[in-house]
Design a protein that fits this description.
This protein is mainly alpha-helical and about 375 residues long. The protein has one domain: Growth Hormone, Chain: A (Up-down Bundle), CATH 1.20.1250. It is built from 18 helices and no strands. The protein is globular, with a radius of gyration of 20 Å.
Length: about 375
């Protein structure tokens, strides 16, 4: 079971590992290639766009053919694309390689949740998802530090070489893991695509998905804008930036650990309620601007990510409780909506705002309020396993 949990953590950590290791290199590439941040950040934004599109394909494929064949195919594509990123000679070649990388990474995130749905009952699954969130939170804590060390002692292409090696490790883990879903008779693909119609008619599932997608906005705005805010805005070096970024990830891990250790005492519904409301509170604190220097951004953002870490494992588990079939499609829809909203937030924060801190605070306040309000309307109608 420990090996399975570690594999789930690695697979779900693909997006943060594929982006956060690369963040310290963005100001460097901006200077070397002479492009504005909005162009350089296309390597982040288009990664997530293609990643999200691929999610919608891998889910039904995993329901139709089993989890391992599409997962192995996606990991092979991710590994090869990482090496193409490493040999890029300009921004547009890098953007193209990142698009391929995103297409491969989608298999890891979407199918990992479906594997958890296959193998674990509800109570055990919520605890495992909390454990996965704690381990996964180490990725954004460690990844920028690794990227900073690579930038200091080697060069930026080695960031993508490291990501390729990560893909190979995941491939080994998948080959050693038994298939968790053996489909029956293979139906025509049009019947599999109809699963999206069933998912979209499930208002309980779609309500939770909408809540989780909305509160992703400030997190991804932070990911895309943090290097500019900390390095260019506050004048921090890459090492201090990695520490502030890692501290924010620690807050996410602390929220997940609270869920893991005290989830039964607090209760699933209460954790989600506090989490959504806390995102709104963190956004308002950021807009108030009562702290000085980089702490003006770090402390409220830490509150936001703590609340995300607290609410995400129980809300993901609760969403999976709303389906009895089409687990792969439901998993893909969950991750797709989360990251497509994230990609839009990354694109938006890259624009020339007077203050990226104020913009991020507005995103947190508005998305937190909308999620909290929708959750209050929804929570009394959900299906909950004993």
């Amino acid at each position: 079971m420990i090996r399975f949990v570690l594999l789930l953590a690695l697979l779900t950590a693909f997006p943060p590992l594929a982006t956060d290791m690369y963040l310290p290199a963005i100001p460097h590439l901006q200077k070397v290639w002479g492009h504005p941040l909005s162009i350089i950040n296309l390597s982040l934004v288009l990664f997530f766009v293609t990643y999200c599109i691929s999610l919608l394909v891998y889910g039904p494929l995993s329901d139709r053919y089993g989890r391992k064949p599409p997962l192995i195919s996606g990991l092979l594509l991710f590994t090869g694309a990482s090496m193409l990123c490493a040999v890029s000679t300009g921004i547009w070649m890098l953007v193209g390689a990142r698009i391929l990388q995103g297409l491969g990474a989608g298999a890891a995130s979407s199918i990992s949740l479906a594997m958890a749905r296959d193998r674990l009952e509800s109570g055990r699954r919520e605890r495992v998802l909390s454990q996965v969130s704690v381990i996964m939170a180490l990725a954004p804590m460690i990844a920028p530090s690794i990227g900073s060390l690579v930038m200091e002692y080697l060069s930026w292409p080695w960031v993508f070489v490291a990501q390729g090696l990560m893909g190979l490790v995941a491939l080994c883990g998948v080959f050693m893991t038994p298939e968790s879903h053996t489909p029956g008779a293979i139906e025509p693909i049009r019947y599999q695509l109809q699963s999206y119609g069933r998912i979209f008619r499930n208002y309980r599932l779609m309500g939770i998905i909408a809540c989780n997608a909305l509160i992703a906005l400030p997190l991804f705005a932070f990911i895309a804008g943090s290097s500019t805010i900390y390095i260019s805005g506050f004048g921090l070096n890459e090492t201090l930036f990695a520490l502030f970024f890692g501290a924010n990830a620690f807050c996410f891990m602390a929220g997940s650990m609270t869920c893991m250790h005290f989830g039964k005492k607090i209760g699933t519904m209460r954790m989600i309620t506090v989490g959504y409301g806390g995102v709104f509170g963190g956004g308002m604190l950021m807009l108030a601007g009562i702290f000085n220097g980089p702490w003006r951004f770090a402390i409220p953002m830490g509150m936001v990510t703590f609340c995300l870490g607290l609410s995400r494992p129980p809300s993901n588990n609760l969403a999976l409780e709303q389906v009895e079939r089409d687990a792969g499609t439901a998993s893909s829809t969950m991750v797709f909506s989360y990251f497509i909203c994230g990609a839009l937030a990354m694109l938006a924060v890259s624009m020339d705002w007077p203050s990226k801190i104020v913009f991020t605070g507005l995103l947190a306040a508005v998305s937190g309020l909308l999620s909290f309000s929708l959750w209050l309307l929804l929570k009394g109608r959900l299906r909950i396993s004993p």
